[in-house]
Write a structure and sequence with these properties.
With 146 residues, this protein is α+β, with helices and mostly antiparallel strands. It is built from four helices and seven strands, in the order αββββαββααβ. The chain has a seven-stranded antiparallel β-sheet, sandwiched between helices. Strand 5 and strand 6 form a beta hairpin. The longest helix is centred in the C-terminal third of the chain and has 14 residues.
Length: 146
């Protein structure tokens, strides 16, 4: 998986946040987390969804908060990046050509359902991931760091 991620990261950075293949046209970001055990910085490409109710301040404009999904393709366990951000919720994300500082929190209840259902409607592959696993796939909201 690391080699595949490295290729996506390289393409993302070379093309101002755009990639081809299965992510062509999809909203993609590079999430930087700190390894819960290693303390090393980790970078993972992933799809995101804009979320109402929060703003990520940037130098040039304000953006809605965003959500990411710990689907791991429907695997029985959550991805390592999810465990990393539970241990250290302050993260960075590369979105397009900009890097922003964020704080992660796990959405629950109605908020989680609203965001998750919107993601499944926009990208039905996420509904497939849900069918492959017995765990509830975490929805993580990324908001501006104070």
């Amino acid at each position: 998986m690391s080699g595949w991620n490295d290729k996506v990261i390289e393409e993302f950075r070379a093309n101002g946040g755009q990639v081809g293949g299965q992510f062509a046209g999809a909203p993609l970001l590079l999430l930087h987390t700190v390894g819960a055990k290693s303390g090393q910085t980790r970078v993972n490409p992933m799809m995101y969804l804009k979320v109402d109710g929060g703003y990520v301040a940037s130098r040039s404009s304000a953006r809605p908060a965003i959500a990411v999904f710990a689907s791991k393709g429907g695997a029985p366990t959550s991805p390592d990046w999810y465990h990393n951000l539970l241990a250290q919720p302050r993260v960075r994300a590369e979105i397009g050509t900009e890097t922003v500082e964020l704080v992660a929190r796990v959405a629950t209840g109605d908020e989680r359902e609203r965001i998750w259902n919107a993601q499944k409607a926009a990208y039905p592959g996420f509904a497939d991931y849900e069918q492959k696993t017995t765990r509830q796939i975490p929805v993580v909201v990324l908001e501006p760091a104070p």
